[in-house]
Specification:
Shape of chain A: globular
Strand order of the largest sheet of chain B: 5-4-3-6-7
Shape of chain B: globular
Distance between the termini of chain A: 68 Å
Strand content of chain B: 15-25%
Largest sheet of chain A: 4 strands, antiparallel
Number of domains of chain A: 1
CATH topology of chain A: Aconitase, domain 4
Structural class of chain A: alpha/beta
Number of helices of chain A: 8
Helix content of chain B: 25-40%
Helix content of chain A: 25-40%
CATH topology of the largest domain in chain B: Aconitase, domain 3
Number of strands of chain A: 8
CATH architecture of the largest domain in chain B: 2-Layer Sandwich
Structural class of chain B: alpha/beta
Number of domains of chain B: 3
Oligomer: heterodimer
Number of strands of chain B: 19
Largest sheet of chain B: 5 strands, parallel
Distance between the termini of chain B: 45 Å
Low-confidence stretches of chain B: none
CATH superfamily of chain A: Aconitase, domain 4
CATH class of the largest domain in chain B: Alpha Beta
Chain lengths: 220, 466
């Protein structure tokens, strides 16, 4: 073990970072409704950013100016986004599409709340970072995307860049252990089964109508 | 210590503590639909798990289902039938009540959850759909989640939640007669931005909120998520209680009396402190319409398209430039000079009976402009029937509107239809790029604004109804 603040020596992720510096990139933009075609979490990477990535809805011909189609960024695994990234629809397909494309880390000044939770539950690290830090990272990686990769240390909570420089970030302990240990959330909660039972027993006395959910009148 | 409505709701549902910030919260009701619900139920099945209390989970078909008259399981959504059949099968084997395609109780989840009395004041309810916050208008703690969290809620009757901060939005004074609930919420988001409510449970209050009907209150809370809020809330009052009483799943007899006493306690204490407060002078609100690709990009209909340089923040001014390019608009254009190709009244935001009545009042004896395709999609089969009983369907049809079956429909090309490439005035909640179809240019407004714009063929506010 290394000393605190020195880094754990184990890098959570190292990869190419692609910039998408627009605020309010919504989950409809991350994956349009029309691209959700199966009752499945798999194979959605092709549909990622479909409206921006392809020349039209009818083709898979790449739009040459979109960042993920530019030579240096095609195998990007880190996304540098704008304010309120992932706002809008709760569709977890947005996270499944990012994951299937290969993204491991998304850094943005702020995130849509539901999207933020969905990320951790699917092993994607969402980092809240000041807008100017993101800008600095994007400027540096933009000089040579494949060479200037970012290094994310989740134990010591920093992003390594430009040799030995570091930008620290905060993350809730629960979220961090979810990412590091990949806990089964349901199994973890079911370990508190007794507490849930006790709550429901007391609550049933307090609010009995909540536990009666049969139809009181015949349906018209 | 004086508690807010949110404090009380939170306390009612707290099961266990994790690290002080995260709590295990009891979930009283889970709602599902055939797009994200199907996958949650399947995920649960594949993990060999079952819902802990299936009698408290409900599912409705709204996101994939066709809304054209004479519908069946067929839809224009690629493989749409697969979603519908998978949902039906999973709901059946899990023992969850399903409001199926042509069930008289079918409709948009957030609409039927209230209308059937399944969600009641003080309850906690989640649904893998971001507009679940709509139900906060009942004084319920209601929020949107992803499919994985829906699995968790179904399997454990709980969720791990980081406690949101509290915010009050105070609508002071009285808005002008022409102003609707939709204009109030668009005004708020345009003024404070689409992140203003981030991480907060937002309680809407003040005389202008008290004066709203329940249908209008649903519109306000529906769009809380468009300001980034965890949820929206309105304290239950006698109007709420009158709305809830006698609904199909609402308690009857002794239980009803017990519930009533509980509901009357569901309001903030005098002097309770909020983490943040925003104030709006209702007199300043005018009928609103969006010009960009996010609900915060909105102005008064009598206004004009803003110049991107007018935004101080560089990201926002770049976003405005991008939005204007997508929307095919130039700074300085009068909003009222923008010609529309289509008009849509529908969605969980604005397709309840009050909305349809308001639009119909304007449409009576008028017709939509010859170049406009207009549609009206009621929020539930029950609303559709109630509207038909009042003859509203005739008014819509005679004006040139299509009259549809209930569902989410063209809010996001649910049912597989699209406004691709067209300019649409829409009573929905999101003007995101491509949401209503590839290249579709969406302008959000109230149902009244949609009706007025459809008739004139250009963005327009309706004259106030006296």
């Amino acid at each position: 073990m290394s000393a605190p603040g020195q880094g754990s020596g184990e890098v959570f992720h190292r990869g190419i970072a692609a910039p998408l510096p627009l605020p309010n990139i919504d989950t409809d933009t991350i994956i349009p409704s029309r691209e959700i075609r199966r009752v499945s979490k798999e194979g959605l990477g092709e549909a990622l950013f479909a409206g921006w990535r392809y020349r039209s809805a009818q083709t898979r011909e790449p739009a040459t100016d979109f960042v993920l189609n530019l030579p240096g960024y095609r195998s990007a695994t880190i996304l540098l986004g704008g304010d309120n990234f992932g706002c809008g629809s709760s569709r977890e397909h947005a996270v499944w599409a990012l994951k299937d494309f290969g993204f491991k880390v998304i850094a943005a000044p702020s995130f849509g709340g539901i999207f933020f939770n969905n990320c951790a539950l699917n092993g994607i690290l969402a980092i809240e970072l000041e807008a100017d830090s993101i800008e600095r990272l994007a400027d540096w990686t933009g000089l040579s995307p494949v060479d200037n990769q970012l290094e994310i240390d989740l134990q010591a909570q920093f992003i390594g860049w430009r040799g030995t420089e570091r930008i620290p970030f905060a993350i809730e302990p629960a979220r961090r252990s979810l990412l590091l240990e990949g806990l089964d959330g349901i199994a973890a909660t079911l370990r508190r089964q007794a507490k849930i039972d006790a709550f429901e027993e007391a609550d049933r006395q307090r609010r009995p109508w909540v536990y009666r959910c049969d139809s009181q009148t015949p349906s018209s | 210590m004086a508690a807010t409505l949110f404090d009380k709701l939170w306390r009612l549902h707290e099961v266990a503590d994790f690290d002080g910030k995260e709590k295990l919260v009891h979930i009283d009701r889970v709602f599902l639909h055939e797009r994200t619900g199907s996958i949650a139920l399947r995920g649960l099945e594949q993990a060999g798990r079952a819902p802990r209390s299936p009698e408290r989970a409900f599912c409705s078909m709204d996101h994939i289902v066709d809304t054209r008259p004479g519908r069946s399981d067929e839809t224009l959504v690629p493989h749409g039938r697969e979603f519908i059949e998978a949902t039906r099968q999973s709901a059946r084997s899990a023992g969850i009540t399903l409001f199926d395609v042509n069930d008289p109780r079918q409709g948009i989840v957030h609409v039927v959850a209230a209308e059937l009395g399944i969600v009641l004041p003080g309850m906690s309810v989640v649904c893998p759909d971001s507009h679940t916050c709509t139900l906060g208008a009942l004084g319920a703690l209601a929020w949107g989640i992803g499919s994985t969290e829906a699995e968790h809620a179904l399997a454990t009757n709980t969720l791990r939640v980081r406690r949101p901060r509290s915010m009050r939005v105070l609508f002071r004074g009285e808005p002008a007669a022409a102003v609707t609930a939709k204009d109030m919420i668009l005004h708020l988001i345009a003024r404070f931005g689409s992140r203003a409510g981030r991480g907060h449970a937002v309680e809407f209050a003040g005389p202008a909120i008290d004066a709203l009907t329940m249908d209008q209150r649903f519109t306000i809370c529906n769009m809380a998520v468009e300001m980034g809020a965890f949820t929206g809330l309105i304290a239950p009052d006698e109007r709420t209680i009158a709305y809830v009483a006698g609904r199909q799943y609402a308690p009857a007899g002794e239980l009803a009396e017990m519930a009533l006493a509980h509901w009357r306690q569901l309001h903030g204490d005098e002097g309770a402190a909020f983490d943040r407060q925003l104030t709006v002078d209702s007199e300043e609100i005018a009928p609103m319409v969006t010009w960009g690709v996010n609900p915060e990009q909105a102005v008064a209909i009598d206004g004009e398209v803003p110049a991107p340089e007018s935004f101080r923040d560089s990201q926002r001014s770049r976003a405005a430039r991008d939005a204007l390019a997508y929307m095919g608009l130039a700074a300085g254009e009068a909003m009222r000079s923008i010609r529309v190709d289509a008009a849509f009244i529908g969605s969980c935001t604005n397709n309840r009976l009050d909305d349809l009545r308001a639009a119909a009042r304007h449409l009576r004896g008028k017709t939509v402009a010859p170049w406009v395709r207009a549609l009206c999609v009621p929020g539930s089969t029950a609303i559709k029937r109630a509207a038909e009983a009042e003859g509203l369907d005739e008014i819509f049809r005679e004006a040139g509107f299509e009259w549809r079956e209930a569902g989410c429909s063209l809010c996001f090309h649910a049912g597989g239809e699209s406004f691709g490439g067209q300019r649409v005035i829409s009573s929905t909640n999101r003007n995101f790029r491509g949401r209503q179809g590839p290249g579709a240019r969406t302008h959000l407004g109230s149902p009244l604004t949609v009706a007025a714009s459809a008739c004139r063929g250009y963005l327009s506010a309706a004259a106030p109804v006296q």
